[in-house]
Amino acid sequence: MARDIPAYNAEAIETKWQQVWDRESTFQARDDSDRPKKYVLEMFPYPSGDLHMGHARNYSIGDAMARQARMRGFEVLHPMGFDAFGLPAENAAIKHNTQAGAWTYKNMDTAIATMKRMGFSYDYDRLVRTCDPEYYKWGQWAFLKMWERGLAYRATSPVNWCPSCNTVLANEQVVDGRCWRCGEVPEKRELSQWYLKITDYAQELLDDLDQLTGWPENVKAQQRNWIGRSEGAEIDFALAAEDGVTPTDRLITVFTTRADTLFGVSFFLLPPESPLAAELVAGTEYEAAYLELKKSVEQVSSVDRQGSGREKHGVFTGRYVINPLTGVPAPIWVADYILLDYGTGAVMGVPSGDQRDFDFARKYDLPIPPIIAQKDDPLYEELKDERELRVTNVDWDHAMDAEGYLIQSGEFTGMKGGKHSEAVDAIIAHLSERGIGRKKVQFRLRDWLISRQRYWGNPIPMIHCDCCGDVPVPYEDLPVRLPDDLDLGAGQTLAEYAPFYETTCPKCGKPARRITDTMDTFTCSSWYYLRYCDPHNDEAPFSREAADHWMTVDNYIGGIEHAILHLLYSRFWTKVMRDLGMVDFDEPFTNLLCQGMVKDANGDTMSKSKGNVVPPSSVIGPYGADTMRLAILFIAPTEKDFNWDEEVVAGANRFIKRAWRTVWGLAETASKDETLDVAALNTEGKELFRRMNEMGIKCTADFDRGQFNTAISAVMELVNDASGYLNKVASADRDPALTYAVARSIVAMLSPICPHWGEELFHEALGLEGSVYDEPWPEFDEEAAKASTIEVAVQVKGKIRARIQVAADAPQAEVEGAAKEAVARFIEGKDIKKVIYVPGKLVNIVAV
RNA sequence: GCCCGAGUGGCGGAAUUGGCAGACGCGGAGGUCUCAAAAACCUUUGAGGAAACUCGUGUGGGUUCGAGUCCCACCUCGGGCACCA
């Protein structure tokens, strides 16, 4: 009985199913389910207006995973929320003279509407907004726990101050010398700020990267770079008295990875900001030059100061240190290429072993004593047995090779030198014995500066009392609420808003002042994935039971821009929670997928200022959400960037409509109640059945790998075959069980990607009840996917000369016989050395 | 300078363990239907060649019966770190 195939009306069916899912709470994650759990998570957005294409891609990937996992029998936790604190809200409020909260909540509503319009299967009952007091209370709680453990502290040091954002920044937020948010070049300011002691976890954050086998290599590499572990030694140099030769009791310690070059020290270096340098030159003839250098460094921006190509500047201090091994004095210089906050803030200058020191020595005419050489170097021949420093200068144009053999190096002469060499070990051992040096591991990672001089953030729950110092807010007083009636339009800040900062000291009861800094928004996003496990808990940030049940995140999906920032902070936060006994795992995210960027048709990043933004609504409108999701997942592998291409969307729409017609066409004869008897099928039916299994297996495997573009192409192939079957086989000759099975498979396999399309066909074309997402993923049979006749390629010495059809179960001898026959003219009169047979694939005849 | 990736048709891309390179889609060409167009459907589409066949996965070598895939050297592009001692 022929039915008219209804037209595919995306808007109508999408609206219909979105309402059904909402009403039925189809995607609620049940804590008490018997099914195995799966936690699929996309990085939550900052609500700065409506969602853009990057979000659409991110969430389409996650949603396809979550929906497919549900069909594969998992109880899926797939939550969503908002990283709602942050500067853009505050700036918008200042500009429009309103409240940051109002702006933020409005944007979140807009974003939620778009998420629903895209058909994302979130459990909206678990929505987390970081600006809700119910949430940020527990961020304050965590801060206090860290304070108790000495992991949160206040310190005064030079920090990056962004003059446009009017706040300090973390090291991680200075990208290429500029503010990550606004691009302004930050100034260095000496300020009292709040830190989290992420450096306590540096080694573990590095080591545990090896556990993360489900993370992309480049993200792990970036984190390793950022943590920046160096093995080396600290070595104590004695400051010389003013005569320049007599050692004093005062020690200045350096950090070096090249203890083997200690005999080559010809000067000693301090950074311009060094208090010691200022002290040494105070009141001397060298002071004026020193102050001038210091001033010039302060005027150079962080952008200009970085880079190894920059010309170096330095001044002599008039003082010396004594080399602890040789007893030789080395002049102390101040140089602008030395960093105050790495190592000990003092460096030994070895011009023959380090290019930077070499450049410096050349410029200021300091000696370059050679202490390491290759065996084929004439210098090696000359000095290989020389223990004393006889040659004190050389005429090179470049520092020496990093590795070689020590010369003129006392008892260590002749040893192999270089990073991690025997000479390094020997010299460190020697220094340790004498108590003037020790092994030392140095990290590039600095503590996380979390205080921000901004309003729209989570208040630091501390009170400053003139008598008692910094006093924590008692737990029972949490949360410290952010007031919502500041006059932001007039530029009022928390520090100027007495109702907020006026308080009494919890310890002594005297009037005291609240800390008016708020926490970096990255503190809020460092644990939101834990809150989703137990979002309504008002006794604790989350229960141990809930965390044990849902964590870890099985699939975490987001942009590569968080490779260091968010992902490093979250790893740190998790380890702190573990040490507090809140969780029992070391790493929060088991598998990480970093999706590529969506660029415009020319390959440029989309941005409002360039005016090349393609809003998701412009695609949903004409084509529907399902088409958009399909196009986004099909156009490229998830981790690659792609350029927006309207033709791909049109193609996806063409396919979705063709698949729609094909399923309806199959449904015409389909019956879910008949049993499929493969043997009874006609030739076309048998082949379609085989292809269904073949493509089903391929599609399933591709879903498991998160490779959606090829999963879709497998469905396309099956749709092509099914449509060919409908063309060739008259409806009376179609098998009802087969057409049902094929239609059901197509619907199931496309449902994670085109969910409304899937539900509609599941109900209307196939006449089934319930949700397609409560139905199991179809089973496919490996045996049934095998063809009875297969094509085998026949090679002669590796070159394809023929293709033959053989029965799938034909014995090897038969296949080889047929192969030889097929390529007879290529092997005629030749000697067959060997025949290689790869079953089902090829025969290679080696004939000479 | 150090550390990660990646180079395949006109384009996006596929090839799961060393086994038929170019699946699937876009674009192109031809056709059916139509007064015409759109839509849809069918055929075709790596290059050269009439064909046999030859060439072909950044370049040059190597291993192998057989290499996009493994090894060596190099080139180009993208990304991270970087005056970090």
Short summary:
With 848 residues, this protein is of the alpha+beta class. The chain binds one RNA strand of 85 nucleotides through helix 7, strand 11, strand 15, helix 11 and strand 31.
Report the end-to-end length measured between terminal Cα atoms: 64 Å
Tell me the major beta sheet: 7 strands, mixed
Overall outline: flat
Count of helical segments?
27
Parts with pLDDT < 50 across at least 5 consecutive residues? none
Gyration radius from CA atoms, angstroms = 35 Å
Helical coverage, percent range? 25-40%
Name the assembly state. Answer: single chain
Fraction of residues in β-strands? 15-25%
Describe this structure in words.
Helix content is 36%, strand content 20%. It is of the alpha+beta class and 848 residues long. Strands 10, 11, 12, 13, 14, 15 and 19 form a seven-stranded mixed sheet that branches. It has a four-stranded parallel sheet with strand order 2-1-28-29, covered by helices on one side. Strands 6-5-9-20 form a four-stranded antiparallel sheet. Strand 32 and strand 33 (799-807) form a beta hairpin. It is flat, with a radius of gyration of 35 Å. The relative contact order is 0.11. The model has no long low-confidence stretch (mean pLDDT 92). The structure holds one RNA strand of 85 nucleotides.
List the helices and strands and how they pair.
Elements: H1 10-24, E1 37-42, H2 53-71, E2 75-77, E3 81-82, H3 87-96, H4 100-117, E4 128-129, H5 133-148, E5 152-162, E6 167-169, E7 174-175, E8 178-179, E9 187-196, H6 202-207, H7 217-227, E10 229-240, E11 247-256, E12 267-270, H8 275-281, H9 287-299, H10 302-305, E13 314-322, E14 329-335, E15 347-349, H11 355-364, E16 372-373, H12 378-383, E17 404-406, E18 416-417, H13 422-433, E19 437-443, E20 448-449, E21 451-452, E22 458-459, E23 462-465, E24 469-472, H14 498-501, E25 502-504, E26 511-514, E27 518-519, H15 521-524, H16 528-531, H17 544-550, E28 553-559, H18 565-579, E29 589-595, E30 598-599, H19 617-623, H20 625-634, E31 642-643, H21 646-667, H22 683-704, H23 708-728, H24 736-750, H25 755-765, E32 789-796, E33 799-807, H26 812-822, H27 824-827, E34 832-838, E35 842-847
Parallel strand pairs: 1-2, 1-28, 3-4, 12-14, 28-29, 30-31, 32-35
Antiparallel strand pairs: 5-6, 5-9, 7-8, 9-20, 10-11, 10-13, 10-19, 12-15, 13-14, 16-17, 17-18, 21-27, 22-27, 23-24, 23-26, 25-26, 32-33, 34-35
The structure holds one RNA strand of 85 nucleotides.
